[in-house]
């Protein structure tokens, strides 16, 4: 089995320092209370970011999503974007990290005074944790590709739990992932409530058909930073790109398919429901990969 978040083994990750509410703690001592609302209820938001040559790629876009999500659930971050940047700088410096690093920034509503749901029971402020790991996605992810299985678990309507929340509660995605594993695949391809192809359990999903790039309307999936970059880069480069409804019919018959996410950038999809995708050539995906690499280089140049 391959996962989209597979990285080369790096023993240095055993000795990392983890930021917990302003303190840097060795991995084994970096803990939160069993009364923490993140542990108890999945009541928190997170962001995954990547460090390239000392610059957190697309930091402003990640912060925009993070602060928007926190505001939407009345979760007071307790600091502004600069405060988050400083906490991340501290953590990277303490770990002597400069490039090929992945960060999981997590904020929960904090420790509760009683083990129940009501948000008002969290009375001592939020819990902020920053885990940074040395991380290089395994090479086979970009060359071999991964296998998807369409799963029964769907992405719901935004008035249940909006898929745009990068919340600690990922049970919807975890169930989809389990279903994919049961079906012998690496990741689950999830449909929307109308049966159109939507997203995977951990990444956004694109197909290439007859020279055009298609992805879902965006109504039921994570508003991925990488997803938006790919759309913008296609537009700027003259590659026809459409956010639209399409079904498994068009998906199985696609020439190329790939996933997007901060961790793996663009990950090739080799097979869906046992059907191989395309003829093994991925000229459009390769072009998009090159454009994305350049966009990161531009972001580094503008922010270092
Ligand atoms: C469900 C889901 N889809 C897609 C993504 C990719 O988003 P991004 O490109 O911002 O990393 C994520 C990452 O957090 C995710 O959790």
From TrEMBL:
Metal-binding in keyword set: no
Signal peptide: none
Keyword Amino-acid biosynthesis in record: yes
InterPro entries xref list: Aminotrans_IV (IPR001544), Aminotransferase-like (IPR036038), BCAT-like_C (IPR043132), BCAT-like_N (IPR043131), Class-IV_PLP-Dep_Aminotrnsfr (IPR050571)
Function, in words: Acts on leucine, isoleucine and valine.
Catalytic reactions on record: L-isoleucine + 2-oxoglutarate = (S)-3-methyl-2-oxopentanoate + L-glutamate; L-valine + 2-oxoglutarate = 3-methyl-2-oxobutanoate + L-glutamate; L-leucine + 2-oxoglutarate = 4-methyl-2-oxopentanoate + L-glutamate
GO molecular function: branched-chain-amino-acid transaminase activity
Highest taxon listed in the record's lineage: Bacteria
Essential cofactor(s): pyridoxal 5'-phosphate
Keywords on record: Amino-acid biosynthesis, Aminotransferase, Branched-chain amino acid biosynthesis, Pyridoxal phosphate, Transferase
EC number(s) given by UniProt: 2.6.1.42
Organism encoding this protein: Sulfitobacter donghicola DSW-25 = KCTC 12864 = JCM 14565
Pathway assigned in UniProt: Amino-acid biosynthesis; L-valine biosynthesis; L-valine from pyruvate: step 4/4; Amino-acid biosynthesis; L-leucine biosynthesis; L-leucine from 3-methyl-2-oxobutanoate: step 4/4; Amino-acid biosynthesis; L-isoleucine biosynthesis; L-isoleucine from 2-oxobutanoate: step 4/4
Protein name as annotated: Probable branched-chain-amino-acid aminotransferase
Entry similarity comment: Belongs to the class-IV pyridoxal-phosphate-dependent aminotransferase family.
Gene Ontology biological process terms in this record: amino acid biosynthetic process; branched-chain amino acid biosynthetic process
Enzyme class: transferase
């Amino acid at each position: 089995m391959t996962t989209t978040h597979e990285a080369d083994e790096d023993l240095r990750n055993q000795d990392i320092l983890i930021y917990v509410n302003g303190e840097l703690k060795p991995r084994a001592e970096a803990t939160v209370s069993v009364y923490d609302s993140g542990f108890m209820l999945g009541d928190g938001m997170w962001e995954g970011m990547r460090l390239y040559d000392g610059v957190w790629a697309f930091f402003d876009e990640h912060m925009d999503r993070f602060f928007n999500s926190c505001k939407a659930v009345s979760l007071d971050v307790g600091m502004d974007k600069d405060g988050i940047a400083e906490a991340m700088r501290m953590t990277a410096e303490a770990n002597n990290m400069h490039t090929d690093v992945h960060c999981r920034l997590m904020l929960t509503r904090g420790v509760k005074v009683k083990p129940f749901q009501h948000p008002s029971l969290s009375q001592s402020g939020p819990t902020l944790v920053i885990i940074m790991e040395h991380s290089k996605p395994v090479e086979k992810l970009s060359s071999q590709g991964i296998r998807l299985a369409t799963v029964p678990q769907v992405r719901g309507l935004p008035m249940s739990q909006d898929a745009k929340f990068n919340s600690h509660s990922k049970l919807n995605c975890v169930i989809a992932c389990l279903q994919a594993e049961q079906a012998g695949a690496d990741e689950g391809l999830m449909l929307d409530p109308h049966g159109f192809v939507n997203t995977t359990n951990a990444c956004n999903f694109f197909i290439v058909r007859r020279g055009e790039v298609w992805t879902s309307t965006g109504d039921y999936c994570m508003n991925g930073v990488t997803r938006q970059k790919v759309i913008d880069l296609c537009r700027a480069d003259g590659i026809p790109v459409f956010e639209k409804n399409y079904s498994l019919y068009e998906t199985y018959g696609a020439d190329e398919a790939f996933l997007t996410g901060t961790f793996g950038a663009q990950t090739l999809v080799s097979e869906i429901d046992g059907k191989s995708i395309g003829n093994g050539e991925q000229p459009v995906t390769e072009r998009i990969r090159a454009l994305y690499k350049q966009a990161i280089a531009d972001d580094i140049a503008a922010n270092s």
